[in-house]
């Protein structure tokens, strides 16, 4: 599998991770923070499966624009976009985003016109979903709204996306049993001096990140990529993480394809 954190800056390519979209083999995408802003329209139109961790804007911001492109596609035999989300997140998408005020209610339009362009699939905790050759397992993590981590497996290879969350145990118990797990993409939002804010907002500091990593018995055999670094503290968090000199630990670079 190829996994890419899509870029989310305007103007110049930057290492900052303002928005969350994790593109897998240009086939499916975990979160849709910036996918709909991608300059390559063919790439956008090729993605028919979305998996949404939670309803915060940095993970959903480009969903309206992304759907707009698909509804304008005009294909003779349309392939629906399937949004996979848990019940409360699905409700938030319908009530807060596609509500005809924020953006047209594409679900209603799709149903009324019989377009067959959009479906919602409700995820349940730790019930794996198969999409093509991929198997995706959602696991509950601990954020201020209902949030799921995702474990993605294909042909014996596996990686986990764990964002957004405060300290959590269950995800590591599940990850421990995943054969072939070689990559964990783990959130790291704040430097250690902002521990208070990490606790209020249910995110991780650098020390939390190190602690969470240590919960995975096979951590030293896994690559860990830090994501969700707050842009104002980006350099500070990065140098703090590097000072731990942990093997296989880096900050994820937007636009780079990571092989799993
Ligand atoms: Zn969040
Ligand atoms: Zn976020």
Write the layout of secondary structure elements.
Elements: E1 2-5, E2 22-24, E3 28-30, H1 41-46, E4 49-51, H2 57-60, H3 63-71, E5 81-86, H4 87-97, H5 106-113, E6 118-123, E7 129-131, E8 134-140, E9 148-154, E10 157-162, H6 170-176, E11 181-187, H7 195-201, H8 206-214, E12 223-227, H9 234-243, E13 249-251, E14 257-259
Parallel strand pairs: 3-4, 4-5, 5-6, 10-11, 11-12, 12-13
Antiparallel strand pairs: 1-2, 1-14, 2-3, 7-8, 8-9, 9-10
This protein binds zinc ion (2 copies).
One zinc ion is lined by residues 20, 56, 58-59, 164, 228.
Shape, per Cα inertia axes: globular
**How many structural domains are formed by the residues?**
1
Mean pLDDT: 95
Most strands sheet: 7 strands, mixed
Q: Could you tell me the radius of gyration in angstroms?
A: 18 Å
Query: Which residues form runs of ≥5 with pLDDT under 50?
Result: none
Instruction: Could you tell me the CATH topology label.
Output: Metallo-beta-lactamase, Chain A
According to CATH, what is the class?
Alpha Beta
Percent range of helical residues: 25-40%
Strand percentage, roughly?
A: 25-35%
Structural class: alpha/beta
